[in-house]
Design the sequence.
């Protein structure tokens, strides 16, 4: 089981420091592991930042990687999770010719069915936004691609774990 | 509150070093670090700056200083090439857990990213080889960043830290205020020890019938030598060492069964695959220690005393991990242990030692052939230094022989480049070691290859009057590579033969007393003269050209497949 390649979500709580991204990504790089997606943002705690990284590796590998990330000075705590342990979302934008909306009414149904949202419309093009799991976004992409997509971009995944992370406890531990 | 006087960032750097108790630093000046050098000149009564001949030499000197003293070594360099020349030393210190702070100058902050003269992204470059690094662009950040640097370098599992300071930050005036760092909220240097793991470990130790201890540098880094010796003596368990751990207990200790690993002793390697309990203390199961992991101690339960969580289960799965500082763990486990003896098991080690002695050691130490061996040189050093010298080695055959045969009475006496295998380490490291402990005899044992990688540091020895003893074991080959070529590449000696200069003439050019020996009957008196010398002394010993180091675990083989010839 531990030797099977699976998708893991890595959540890293950190201090804000220039260069920390480099330090973390180097740990994947030296093991020749490709990062599927990476997102960095503020977290629920003021002054604490959060990286969400998706990688396809074995559980043996991810345990060792987490150990090496966790010991970096400015990392407060690093965790890894299976897909089932997290609620995660990606976000994407499509730029599509506006004329298509009128030339082919089917596209309107696709938009309605997909729960995508029109962000802006003008004479030349409209921009569609969609959040969801990778599969849903891929599905929408495939449908729209038949009509022609002018531009497409997808964000890295952001994930929330089902279990608590106890970062506040770790930080208050330090004060005692 | 006392009225503060504004000082420059560069003066603050020097004041921070003084506040951290730094007395000696190693370095090389240049454009982007000149303001700091100007202050070092003013404070030269408080901090002794040693001008090395290359920035790499400065890092290795700082490492030698740190390894023998346990204090943080400090190296300083300019931006660009000065900074990149530190990288090998940083990597060496990182993999061998050596506390070191490197300070580099950087171009002024408004020039960052513009490919300015001698600009290099040293923070980016050094990230994978530092425990922590940071760029300072404001003078007011200097005190807290340097305080943090020293704290990180020496706490927990020690390591190197690099601080890059832009030139404008060095010139900027600010109100100086220094306080030491005692904690960082995202960093827990010493984990909380779990009593459960100690109980489980004690239970295994008390019930084992063929236990083996393998200890590493962690024992020395946590200053647990006494506790470790008490542990060994109470449990009566044979104890073997990695090359980073040797000298934590005396070589002559009856339970010291020698070195593990590729060129280690026969008995501890063979019996690693026979023991029923392997107790690893402050070591990280490096591949040079374990050989093929799939065939390493599979029959044994494993207890791993280790401070760094990332090392636990990294290479060898621990049945009982004891995550903590070695000194604390050993102190707390001792009362839980039974006093035992393992005479029959220990006898197995003695029997295998006899085999190794007859087929390897006898010929190394008491050769009958004409050519001199590296082993007999180490034997003579033992005779005259009586096990009290710190032996500083480089990398290769001479290193393995020195580690195998050198006698040590005191901890922190074996200074070598272990994990990184840095040729050129020994000469500058010996300078640092001697300056940190002037009362100790420091003998650098170096091969003719590695010696020429940092040979320019003879200039430092001469200028700074450092009375180190230098022994070059000259076999006119890159001996270890040649040995592999002989054994595994059908004797195709690709680029391993060295046409060497007159080494004694080079030493003489630096006004260092020197001697060359090529005959056995000259060896003892030459070593005696070297050890007795109050000044630095260079001794070249011409060694049999194609000698090999045995025993040997071929790369990828099991520890128990160790070859005696």
Sequence:
């Amino acid at each position: 089981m531990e030797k099977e390649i699976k998708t893991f979500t890595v959540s890293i709580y950190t201090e804000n420091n220039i260069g920390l991204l480099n330090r973390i990504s180097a740990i994947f790089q030296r093991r020749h592991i490709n990062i599927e997606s990476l997102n960095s943002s503020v977290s629920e705690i003021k002054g604490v930042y959060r990286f969400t990284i998706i990688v396809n590796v074995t559980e043996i590998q991810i345990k060792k990687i987490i150990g090496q990330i966790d010991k970096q000075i400015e990392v407060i705590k690093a965790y890894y999770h299976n897909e089932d342990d997290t609620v995660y979302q990606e976000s994407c934008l499509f730029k599509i010719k506006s004329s298509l909306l009128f030339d082919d009414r089917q596209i309107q149904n696709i938009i309605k069915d997909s729960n995508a949202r029109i962000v802006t419309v003008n004479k030349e093009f409209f921009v569609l936004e969609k959040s969801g799991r990778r599969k849903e976004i891929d599905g929408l992409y495939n449908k729209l691609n038949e009509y022609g997509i002018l531009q497409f971009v997808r964000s890295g995944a952001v994930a929330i774990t089902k279990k608590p992370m106890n970062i506040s406890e770790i930080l208050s531990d330090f004060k005692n | 509150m006392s009225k503060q006087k504004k000082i420059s960032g560069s003066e603050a750097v020097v004041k921070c070093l003084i506040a951290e108790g730094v007395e000696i630093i190693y370095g090389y000046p240049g454009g982007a670090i000149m303001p700091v050098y100007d202050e070092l000149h003013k404070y030269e009564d408080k901090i002794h700056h040693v001008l090395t001949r290359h920035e790499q030499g400065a890092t290795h000197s700082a490492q030698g200083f740190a390894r023998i003293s346990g204090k943080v070594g400090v190296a300083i360099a300019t931006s660009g090439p000065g900074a990149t020349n530190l990288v090998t030393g940083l990597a060496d210190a990182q993999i061998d857990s050596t506390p070191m702070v490197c300070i580099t100058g950087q171009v002024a902050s408004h020039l960052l990213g513009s490919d300015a003269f001698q600009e290099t992204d040293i923070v980016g470059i050094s990230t994978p080889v530092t425990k922590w690094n940071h760029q300072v662009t404001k003078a007011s950040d200097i005190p807290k960043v340097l305080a943090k640097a020293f704290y990180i370098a020496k706490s927990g599992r020690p390591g190197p830290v690099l601080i890059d300071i832009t030139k404008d930050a060095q010139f900027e005036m600010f109100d100086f205020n220094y306080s030491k760092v005692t904690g960082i909220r995202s960093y827990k240097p010493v984990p909380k020890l779990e009593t459960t793991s100690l109980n489980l470990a004690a239970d295994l130790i008390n019930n084992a019938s063929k236990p083996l201890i393998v200890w590493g540098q962690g024992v020395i880094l946590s200053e647990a030598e006494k506790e470790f010796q008490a542990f060994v003596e109470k449990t009566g368990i044979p104890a073997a060492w990695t090359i980073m751990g040797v000298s934590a207990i005396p070589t002559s200790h009856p339970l010291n069964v020698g070195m593990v690993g590729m060129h280690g002793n026969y008995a501890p390697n063979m019996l690693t695959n026979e023991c029923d309990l392997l107790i690893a203390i402050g070591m990280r199961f490096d591949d040079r220690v374990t050989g093929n992991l799939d065939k390493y101690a599979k029959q044994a339960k494993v207890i791993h005393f280790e401070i760094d969580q990332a090392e636990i289960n990294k290479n060898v799965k621990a049945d009982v991990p004891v995550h903590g500082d070695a000194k604390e763990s050993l102190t707390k486990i001792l009362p839980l242990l039974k006093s035992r003896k393992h005479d029959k098991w220990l006898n197995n080690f003695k029997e295998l030692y006899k085999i190794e002695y007859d087929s390897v050691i006898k010929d190394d130490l008491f050769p009958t052939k004409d050519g001199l061996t590296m082993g007999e040189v180490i034997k003579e050093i033992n005779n005259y230094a009586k096990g009290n010298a710190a032996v500083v080695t480089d990398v290769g055959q001479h290193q393995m022989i020195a580690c195998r045969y050198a006698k040590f009475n005191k901890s922190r006496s074996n200074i070598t480049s272990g994990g990184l295998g840095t040729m050129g380490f020994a000469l500058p490291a010996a300078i640092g070691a001697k300056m940190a402990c002037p009362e100790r005899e420091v003998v650098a044992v170096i091969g003719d290859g590695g010696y020429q990688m940092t040979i320019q540091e003879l200039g430092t020895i001469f200028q700074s009057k450092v009375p180190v003893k230098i022994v070059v074991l000259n076999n006119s080959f890159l001996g270890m590579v040649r040995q592999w070529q002989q054994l595994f590449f059908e004797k195709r000696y690709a680029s391993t033969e060295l046409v060497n200069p007159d080494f004694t003439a080079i030493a003489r050019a630096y006004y260092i007393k020197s001697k060359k020996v090529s005959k056995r009957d000259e060896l003892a008196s030459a070593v005696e003269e070297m050890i007795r010398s109050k000044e630095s002394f260079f001794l070249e010993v011409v060694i049999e050209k194609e000698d090999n180091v045995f025993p040997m675990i071929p790369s990828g083989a099991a520890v128990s497949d160790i070859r005696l010839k």
Remarks:
- Chain A touches chain B at residues 14-15, 17-19, 22-23, 26, 30, 63-64, 67-68, 70-71, 73-76, 171, 174-175 (CB under 8 Å).
- The helical segments of chain A are 20-29, 59-70, 99-103, 106-114, 134-145, 167-175.
- Chain A has a mean pLDDT of 92.
